[in-house]
Task: inverse folding
């Protein structure tokens, strides 16, 4: 993204939570911001990269991004790191020591939980990090609060010399609301003060930091009880009172507009005095929190009789239609009459996300789906969709980079029934650099027998096509050193002759390479090299069309899995063998087709030919 | 809350659902409303389901529209409109582009696409107005106008005048020149006319 003039102070803008956080981080005078793309956190860094007067980067993973922020903070600069919930698992190692050293320049970590799992491998509650790392946690409930709290987070961080976690969820990150913005206040780097006892965390030094950390936590506890971010709204409807935080607050207010509510903005450490005050307002008190009963458990341990997960779901997002009936049932009142639905609807076909027309991954998965006797460890990215129809080609997905270690473990742990299986790992370029390459090193070092498919589409695809070392462009789109995968892989210990670079649109070449490499009892890496179709690097080809009179209905092209291929009619025929088969005659949507030719190769009657449009093509794009 | 207007926009990834809702949001802001707009857009870029919730009024709390509380539904695809029809209040109106976008799982024969999703909506008591946005856009010379056609279709179902919405569209395209603005005005008018024409009383 190109730098744009930021909107002037006092503008009231429609902003997503991510955009609001980015604006606040910039205004706070932050000098260094780093992150790795991940839904729903991606746009924070994307937006920050458009602001002037600060350094931003896509880091190779979240751990490195936090380390970059730590280094900047040591120099006395305000710094910021953003990641999705699973990213903080990766960055947990530096975090757990950072809490001992503390910060110099204000350091804020924004972590975005994918509550409800729109695009993640698990659901987890990042609020645990507050207690685990003994650091304060801020939880906004909408875009304006995300902005306000992100600005305040830097003040808090510097006042207590503590890293601050700004905890967001999808319903903050991706909800747009009105935000009044301010102006940037420069914060110059204070300069590095050499102090080994503080920055060099060897046991002797770390032991002296622990009491300081615990003392800081006590001070933060006092702050929490006084903080205006923890608001006790008295309310007039005293049937039930609530303790809540983040987006759940909005659902509570929507459901019970006049009930007493303790809204937690500084949600760790817990403001127990304010909780005690709230307990006086009603006989029944419900803790409304998404995912884990963190607060509920703590409050019960502190002797407060509260309700929570006894009436509310343990997973997924809350909503007024979940909270309201559950609480009303608890109050033993008649449940509110549900709005009359037009009529229960019949179950409809699913519409799972799928690979794009011409996606280079399609050639890989079509090939893998045609081969027998493979066990395939998958990874995180668009190519995880290879687990879906029609390919059904992945046997595991755990976390970023896990395909390597999992495949090695499959190889070492296999028993009699799997001894003839070919073990493969499939991983994308960005995931390989994130956490995959250490796994490959483990495979070579420990003489594993795995065939690795490195799907290099030169971008972080699933999160919208961010730049990476694989395309040689930085966060601003400017030229940057480009990784040389064959060289890197050779350096990691794979024999030169076991590294193949090929075009995933060339099915016969790919097919042969996978067959040959899986037959060899040592590690090999096949690098499939084609740009993601959603990036500027992709150049569309001439579209194809199915010649009606030549199509025999074999349906081979449907098995490729391209969304531009449609079945026009089906026909049941009885083969000479007596077996009944269903034929599927097809057409190609020439507006969607970008001419990769993957469907042309398996077409038996050569019925798929180039489309010669009478008019220039119109490419459909959102306005 | 009764003084909040709930608009649900649905379709599939890449159709412009989020952009359309963004423009509707801008119109509501221009009218002085508080606005919240939310969608689940994680993996939906890859041809998956996209819904965008727009709520506006004096003060909006929860960003999500609850089932049975939407004032109007704008559907970019026929089966998607059917999928979300239960979000409408009883008797509320759905404006639906009757395009049928069939996903690979249906082409593979694993699931069935409904024969007549619009008819199914009507059979369930939804006041459904359908039209062919793609053809209207193509007739005006550019498929990309489909989004503006959709906005034209919903223009008369909003608690403010159609001109407010049109102004927001014009503002968005102003930097692309008068020619593009004029095309969008035509597309807006075409969508508005198509919805009015299709809205014959049941």
Result:
């Amino acid at each position: 993204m190109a730098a744009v003039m930021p909107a002037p102070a006092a503008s009231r803008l429609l902003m997503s939570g991510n955009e609001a956080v980015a604006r606040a981080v910039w205004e706070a005078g932050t000098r260094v911001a780093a992150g790795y793309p991940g839904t729903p956190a991606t746009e924070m860094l994307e937006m920050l990269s458009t602001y002037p007067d600060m350094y931003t980067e896509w880091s190779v993973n979240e751990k490195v991004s936090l380390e970059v922020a730590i280094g900047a903070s040591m120099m006395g600069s305000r710094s910021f790191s953003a990641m999705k919930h699973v990213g903080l698992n990766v960055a947990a190692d530096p975090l757990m020591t950072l809490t001992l050293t503390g910060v110099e320049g204000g350091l804020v970590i924004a972590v975005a939980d994918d509550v409800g799992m729109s695009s993640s491998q698990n659901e987890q509650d990042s609020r645990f990090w507050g207690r685990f790392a003994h650091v304060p946690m801020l939880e906004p409930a909408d875009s304006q609060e995300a902005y306000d709290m992100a600005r305040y987070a830097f003040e808090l961080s510097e006042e207590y010399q503590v890293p601050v976690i700004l905890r967001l969820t999808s319903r903050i990150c991706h909800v747009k609301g009105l935000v009044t913005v301010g102006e940037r206040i420069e914060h110059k780097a204070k300069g590095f003060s050499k102090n080994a006892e503080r920055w060099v965390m060897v046991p002797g030094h770390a032991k002296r930091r622990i009491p300081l950390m615990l003392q800081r936590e006590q001070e933060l506890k006092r702050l929490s009880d006084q903080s205006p971010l923890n608001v006790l709204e008295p309310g007039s409807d005293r049937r039930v009172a609530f303790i809540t935080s983040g987006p759940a607050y909005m659902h509570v207010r929507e459901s019970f507009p006049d009930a007493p509510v303790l809204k937690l903005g500084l949600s760790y450490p817990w403001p127990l005095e304010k909780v005690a005050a709230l307990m006086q307002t009603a006989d029944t008190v419900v803790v409304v929190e998404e995912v884990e009963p963190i607060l509920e458990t703590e409050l019960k341990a502190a002797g407060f009789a509260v309700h929570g997960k006894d009436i509310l779901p343990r997973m997924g997002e809350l909503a007024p239609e979940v909270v309201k009936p559950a609480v009303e049932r608890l109050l033993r009142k008649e449940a509110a009459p549900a709005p009359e639905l037009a009529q229960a609807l019949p179950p409809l076909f699913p519409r799972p996300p799928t690979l794009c027309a011409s996606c280079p991954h399609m050639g890989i998965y079509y090939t893998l789906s045609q081969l027998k006797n493979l066990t395939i460890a998958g990874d995180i990215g668009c190519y995880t969709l290879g687990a879906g129809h029609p390919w059904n080609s992945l046997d595991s997905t755990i976390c970023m980079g896990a395909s390597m270690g999992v495949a090695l473990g499959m190889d070492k742990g296999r028993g009699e029934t799997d001894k003839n299986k070919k073990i493969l790992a499939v991983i994308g370029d960005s995931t390989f650099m994130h956490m995959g390459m250490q796994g490959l090193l483990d495979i070579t070092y420990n003489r594993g027998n795995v065939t690795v498919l490195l799907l290099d589409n030169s971008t972080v695809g699933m999160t919208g096509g961010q730049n990476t070392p694989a395309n040689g462009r930085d966060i601003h789109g400017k030229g940057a050193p480009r990784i040389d995968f064959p060289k890197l892989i050779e350096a990691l210990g794979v024999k030169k002759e076991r590294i193949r670079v090929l075009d995933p649109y060339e099915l016969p070449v790919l097919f042969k390479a996978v067959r040959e490499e899986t037959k060899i009892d040592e590690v090999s890496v096949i690098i499939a090299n084609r740009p993601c179709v959603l990036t500027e690097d992709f150049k569309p080809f001439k579209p194809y069309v199915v010649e009606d009179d030549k199509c025999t209905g074999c349906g081979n092209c449907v098995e490729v899995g391209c969304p531009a291929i449609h079945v026009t009619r089906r026909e049941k025929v009885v083969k000479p063998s007596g077996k009944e088969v269903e034929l599927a005659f097809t057409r190609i949507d020439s507006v969607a087709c970008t001419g990769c030719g993957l469907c042309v190769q398996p077409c038996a009657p050569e019925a798929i030919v180039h489309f010669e449009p009478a008019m220039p093509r119109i490419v459909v794009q959102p306005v | 809350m009764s003084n909040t207007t709930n608009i649900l926009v649905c379709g599939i990834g890449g159709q412009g659902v989020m952009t359309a809702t963004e423009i509707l949001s801008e119109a509501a802001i221009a009218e002085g409303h508080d606005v919240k707009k939310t969608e689940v857009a994680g993996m939906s870029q890859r041809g998956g389901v996209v819904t965008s919730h727009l709520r506006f009024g004096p003060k909006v709390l929860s960003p999500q529209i609850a089932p049975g509380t939407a004032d109007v539904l704008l559907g970019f695809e026929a089966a998607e409109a059917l999928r979300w029809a239960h979000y409408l209040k009883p008797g509320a109106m759905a404006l639906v582009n009757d395009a049928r976008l069939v996903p690979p799982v249906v082409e593979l024969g694993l699931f069935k696409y409904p024969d007549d999703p619009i008819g199914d909506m009507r059979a369930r008591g939804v006041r459904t107005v359908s039209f062919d946005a793609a053809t209207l856009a193509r007739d005006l010379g550019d498929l990309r106008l489909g989004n503006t056609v959709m906005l034209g279709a919903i223009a008369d179902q909003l608690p403010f005048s159609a001109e407010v919405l049109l102004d927001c569209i014009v503002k968005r395209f102003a930097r692309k020149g008068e020619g593009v603005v004029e095309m969008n005005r035509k597309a807006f008018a075409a969508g508005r006319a198509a919805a009015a024409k299709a809205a014959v009383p049941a």
